[in-house]
Amino acid sequence: MNTIDLRSDTVSHPTPAMRKAMAEAVVGDDVFGDDPTVLELQAYAADLLGKEDALFVSSGTQGNLVACLTHCGRGDELIVGKQAHIFQYEQGGSSVLGGIVMSQVPVQPNGELKLDDIKASLRTPNEDHHPITKLICLENTQGGVGGVPITAEYTATIGEFAHAHGYKLHIDGARLFNAAAALNVEARELVKHADSVSICLSKGLIAPIGSLLVGSKDFIRQARRNRKLLGGGMRQVGILAAAGLISLKEMRLRLAEDHATAQQLADGLAEIPGITVHPIHQRTNMLYFSIPETLDAADFVAAMKAQNIILRGGPHFRAVTHYWIKPEHIQIMLNAVYEYMKQHAGEFTSAANVMTKNAY
Ligand SMILES: Cc1ncc(COP(=O)(O)O)c(C=O)c1O
Predict the structure, then answer these.
(1) What are the residue ranges spanned by the domains of the chain?
(2) Spelled out in words, what is the top-level CATH class assigned to the domain 254-353?
């Protein structure tokens, strides 16, 4: 990639090795269940997460939607974080297409939903006025509060609570392997108590397309029907699964590098007068920063773009690091922000004068 694109890890392109594997992939008709590369990917993912089976789906959104439709029927209710992707950024698909009520509880700065908040939102069983609670959804890492990882211990608490009451637990693990890297645990430990997990291959794991839904054999059997219902049955999709295998076998193991570049960027930006880096419970591959409200955010974005640095937002920005963002790119970005602030920000006072031009 020629650009320093920090809008999201979803912008990452496949590597040459992925492209080669895609070109050479052995394929079949996956709707008939006979694409060997998809079967290999699904078996690999299930094993990796300690579950019985897995299903290749087109996107994280589809994985979450298929999971919710499989766990819940019309008029049932799921409990989800108010800042969670499932609630905020998936067009309410579970409600729109599945007639599922979404009850939201606030996400804490550490990414957790308080057990007391979950308890408070539960419905009375056998009460004709209420929908029927069926599912609790967690997100790991939790994007809405900066991509923080949630621990195996916390997930176990929620899973045990859910199962004791007859509810299922789904984990939106779009960036589950970032959480595993940050917490230094095996991903399977983070999902031990989950009935279903969706993981994305096309974010930090940089495959071009695809996600996997993982769970029990019975769950995946039903999920497969729901995927078809949504038009998600794909044919010679081993072409994509071939890249996904590299994601799970190789890309998964290097995510700590992205966490280090995110920290490098956060540390560097924090030293530039006028820039606010928002505090975070535990960093993975994201950071939030702001430029002063008094500056023209569009001008800042354009100035960065002129140097091939692509940002989204303003005056508050989220920057996400990924495979194609190396320490030298962070350095370029820090230099660019430093220069911009020096020229434009009134706040850039004596503190800045002691910094040399090449401080970054
Ligand atoms: C936490 C989380 N879940 C689900 C998704 C949806 O993934 P997709 O864009 O593949 O539909 C995203 C996308 O960024 C995400 O951040």
Answers:
(1) 9-249, 254-353
(2) alpha beta
